[in-house]
UniProtKB/TrEMBL annotation:
GO terms for molecular function: oxidoreductase activity, acting on CH-OH group of donors. Residues 41-77 form the Glucose-methanol-choline oxidoreductase C-terminal domain. This is Glucose-methanol-choline oxidoreductase C-terminal domain-containing protein. Transmembrane segments: none annotated. It holds the Pfam family GMC_oxred_C. It comes from Daedalea quercina L-15889.
Amino acid sequence: MPSRADEDTSLSANNPDIEVIPPDRMAGHISCSFLCTPVRPTSTGTVRLASSDPLGEPLIDLNYFSTEYDMDMFLRDILSTRRPKDETLGRSWSVSFSESDFLK
């Protein structure tokens, strides 16, 4: 039986670093796809005023993946979502994997 500490979601050890979300499949297609997102990023961005105009667009710097931890978690996430292809689907189905260069 889990202890109260095991169920305490305020403790960082009990919270995931990544979340894998399977999106809806496309009608008429057999597919398997995942949306990977960091849950506890350590990178921080900024939102600043661009001018004294209150209706003006702000300056937004998202600063995604600026820490080594965030990049490591993201790469681990990608590798873990490839596992079904490598271990199961690739054995019996014709499976393709898009090698996007968006991180380069």
